[in-house]
Amino acid sequence: MLNIVLFGPPGAGKGTQSVKLVEKFGLVHLSTGDVFRYNIKHETELGKLAKSFIDKGNLVPDEVTIDILKREVEKHPITKGFIFDGFPRTITQAIALDTFLNTKNTSIALMLALQVDENELVKRLLIRGKDSGRADDTDERIIRNRINVYNEQTSVAAEFYNTQGKYHAINGTGKVDEIFERLTESIEQILGKSS
Ligand code: AMP
Known about the structure:
By secondary structure, the protein is an alpha/beta fold.
C-alpha cells in the first residue's frame, strides 16, 4: 500500500493537490475537514460538535477526530493506499495513525509538506472564502487563528515524520501544475526506491 500524509498550513493547497494525486496514483482521498463539513451540512451530532470548534478556527478534539479517521479508513478495506489530507494535525493523532496502520500491517510511506508563506496563505484563503462560502475562510481573524493553531499544535507533527526519515518539504508556491509536478517527483522517487 502507498499511504501519504499531505501536510501543510490551511490554504497550502492540500485539497487541490489531493484530487490530482488521487487521480494519478489511484489512492483514496481522506480529508477529516471534508468529513466534518459533510456532517455540518447534514446537521448530525458530530456536525454540531465539530462546528463549534471549526467556526472559531480551533482543532476538533483528538479523540473525536481519531475515531472519525479510523471509521473512514475502515470503509475502504481494499485500496492501493490513502492520501491523508489534514490529518494528523497533532502529535497524538500522528501516533494514533501509526498505531492504527500497524494493526492493518501497513504504514505511512511519506509525508509531503507544502511550504507557503503566511501572507500568501491569508490571501488564498480570503479568495477561497468568497467562492466556497466556508465560514472559517471569510474572517481574517479566524484565518490567522487557524494559522497560529497550525504553527503551535500542528507543525510539530512534521518532526514526528522527520525522525522516521519520511518528511519531504515541497515548495507550495507557483502554478497548481508545477506544485503537482514537485509532489509527483517525490512520490515516484520513493516508489522507485521501494520497488
Ligand atoms: P481543513 O478542511 O483540513 O482545513 O479543516 C477544516 C477544519 O476542520 C480545521 O480548521 C479544524 O477545525 C477541523 N479539522 C480538520 N481536520 C482536523 C484534525 N485532523 N484535527 C482536528 N481538527 C481538524
